[in-house]
Specification:
The chain is an alpha/beta fold. 42% of the residues lie in helices and 16% in strands. α1 crosses α4, α1 crosses α5 and α4 packs across α5.
Length: 178
């Protein structure tokens, strides 16, 4: 079981639909997607009997730009940032949940990218949540091979929820099952 803490820190997120107006509703709506992303991205690495936690923050570009500058040395907004807590040495207390980390999305960038790519903003946001979670689990896209592996996981998870392949040129292209 994954516990999701959701924080909506920018008022414009409500434009993505009714789920984005309330943190509890959004946490419930994201639950199955988050569970699927963690299961697909962690494989056997995550003890299925151990509870896990993560947070998803729906912020604005200014917040993400500040975080990007302070933690990555890049003074510009980006669509999503991930702050993995599993990379640090953590004490192993029996029954304690595994804290995966935080995923932070930038509203204006998410909306601009969705408009530019002719994608539903809500689907783009969901894609970025999955993308961020995979980073929490240690996936990266620094090499072509890493990027291809990460994209395969993302498209497979999103397809389970009827969300088109975000890497396809066609906005309604669902990936073929592997």
């Amino acid at each position: 079981m994954i516990e999701i803490a959701v924080s909506i820190d920018a008022p414009g997120w409500s434009a993505l639909g009714p789920d984005f107006a309330d943190e509890d509703a959004l946490a419930a709506a994201l639950g199955p997607l988050v569970e699927a992303a963690v299961a697909a991205g962690a494989g056997a690495a995550l003890d299925s009997g151990r509870p896990a936690e993560l947070s998803v923050v729906f912020a604005d570009d200014a917040t993400v730009q500040r975080l990007n500058r302070d933690y990555r040395g890049k003074d510009a907004p980006t669509n999503v940032l991930s702050f993995a807590l599993t990379e640090a040495e953590e004490p192993d207390f029996p029954g304690a949940p595994l804290v995966l980390g935080d995923v932070v999305l930038a509203l204006e960038t998410v909306l601009a990218e969705a408009a530019r790519d002719n994608k539903a903003a809500v689907d783009h946001a969901r894609h970025l949540v999955v993308h961020g979670i995979l980073h929490l689990l240690g996936h990266d896209h620094m090499t072509d091979a890493e990027a291809e592996a990460m994209e395969r996981i993302e498209t497979a998870v999103l397809a389970r929820f009827g969300i088109a392949d975000p890497y396809s040129d066609s906005p309604d292209s669902l990936p073929h099952p592997a």
